[in-house]
Amino acid sequence: MVLRIVSADQLRRYTRIKQMESDKRRHNSLDADASLLEEQRRVFMDGAFDESELLILLDHIAIAARSGVFEYEVMDFPSAFCSDGGRAINNSEPTWPNTLQGKAKNFHDLWQEHGKPQGYRLKARVISYPRGFIGDISLLVDWS
After folding, report:
1. Which among 34, 55, 137, 139 has most CB atoms closer than 10 A?
2. What does the domain layout of the chain look like in residue ranges?
3. Which one has a higher pLDDT value, 62 or 23?
4. What is the pLDDT of residues 36-68, one digit of tens each?
C-alpha cells in the first residue's frame, strides 16, 4: 500500500482557491441583494395602497376582530424606506408619521382621511434588529 500525503503547501493553495470562490459567491450574492432591495424600494416609493388592497385589509381586520385580536399589520418594510431610517419610530417620537414615504405614507394619508375619524389608530414599530441595527418596520391598524 502506497500512502500519499498531501503537502501543507498544496492544502494552503486549495484552501485559498476555495476561499476566493466563496468570496466571489458572497460578493455576487450581496450585489443581487442590493439590486433586489433597490427594486423593492422603487416599487414601494412609487406604490399606492389601492382599493383592492383596502378591501382585503377590511376583510382581514374583521377576521382579526372575530378572533379576539385588537390590531392588524397592514404592511412591513425596511427601515431604510423611512426618511430617517426608522429612528423616530424606534424612539416612539410623536412625529414618526412625518418620516413615512411611498406606500406607507399613502396608507397613512388614507388612514387620516377614513380610519382615524372612525376611531382606528395607526401604530408603527420596529420588528427586527439585525446585527443590533433597526431592521424592518411594521405598520399596524389598532381598534382597542
Report:
1. 137
2. 8-46, 48-142
3. 62
4. 888 898 999 999 988 889 999 999 999 999 999
